[in-house]
Design brief:
The chain is 27% helix and 15% strand. The chain has 310 residues and is α/β, with parallel strands linked by helices.
Length: 310
């Protein structure tokens, strides 16, 4: 079982400074007040905005963010890490991109990102056109007891994500508790890569994983955010196949009971948790792919996600 975090990390300052998040912009209208992003994408654990790079092939105004401590975003002080800080980082970063507060967008969160998306939608419901949760429920989750179970506790220093070689990066991640097969796959996918300066960088950060379990996943905040969520936007929950999902059927049913007709459940029997359904889409599908995935119809615009009608 993964080690518990130091007691000093059990609370964090509510006045922690925000971090400007690194982003990948899939848009022809970057930083435009008149045509803001229509989709904001939030990644999961051991991931980054790189997971959404498939969107580069789509005719869609979207931005994918690296949460603090993941991808290319700074971690900041470990004691400042919290779910509230993650939400404030997203809001501050979007503001810095000149994304108007009054402009609504579709917020998509995969896995852990789904929990952060719930929290953001609860904090800023007036900004949300539709909420899309990919393979995540609201159940409290203890640290993973599967292949990622041998994690070391957080040290006194933040995990260093820049290395002189791929071998050094792999050695450090192995020491942190990641399985070798996962590390090799991440190198192939580009989550661990060589930069132009010749050094190697890992988007994957064991500090981020540990902190997210402590402050987000292993708490009741998911249930609390789901119950108190304001606004009238629809909440689409996408669940992978029974052998690939991390979702509990009991928790999914609880989400439906709480949200009622406002929640739309979409099942993808062939999908796995690590391959989110909106990433696995036909090429050149354009900005209508979300509508088709939700059964809304290929001729409807992205804004149709704001409807309940399928």
């Amino acid at each position: 079982m993964a080690a518990l975090l130091p007691l000093s990390l059990s609370t964090c300052s509510m006045t922690a400074p925000t971090i400007t998040l690194h982003s990948r912009c899939f848009s022809r209208n970057i930083n435009s007040k008149t045509n803001p992003y229509s989709v904001v994408l939030i990644h999961g654990l051991d991931s980054s905005s790189q997971t959404w790079s498939r969107f580069a092939e789509e005719d869609l105004d979207a931005v994918a963010l690296d949460l603090r401590g993941a991808g290319q975003s700074k971690m900041g002080l470990l004691d400042d890490f919290s779910q509230e800080a993650l939400v404030k980082d997203i809001h501050s970063t979007l503001q810095g991109m000149k994304h108007e507060c009054t402009s609504k967008f579709v917020l998509v969160g995969h896995s852990l990102g789904g929990r952060i998306a719930m929290a953001y939608a609860n904090a800023y419901p007036e900004q949300i056109q539709a909420l899309v949760i990919e393979d995540m429920d609201i159940a409290q989750r203890a640290p993973n007891n599967g292949p990622f179970s041998n994690f070391s506790p957080l040290g006194d220093r933040p995990f260093e994500r820049k290395f002189g070689s791929a071998e050094k990066a792999k050695e450090s991640l192995l020491k942190a508790g990641y399985p070798e097969g996962a590390i090799d796959r991440w190198i192939q996918e580009g989550r661990i890569r060589q930069n132009e300066d010749g050094c190697w960088w890992t988007d994957v950060n064991p500090d981020f994983r540990n902190l997210c379990y402590h402050h987000v996943l292993n708490t009741h905040k998911g249930e609390q955010d789901w119950k108190s969520m304001g606004g009238s936007f629809p909440c689409h929950v996408l669940v992978a196949g029974s052998e690939g999902t991390v979702c509990s059927e009991e928790s999914i049913k609880e989400m439906q009971t709480i949200m009622g007709d406002r929640m739309r459940l979409h099942r993808f029997p062939q999908a796995s948790h690590s391959k989110p359904s909106v990433v696995e889409m036909p090429p050149n599908f354009g900005c209508h792919f979300i509508g088709l995935r939700f059964g809304i119809g290929i001729h409807n615009s992205l804004g149709e996600l704001g409807r309940f009608q399928e």
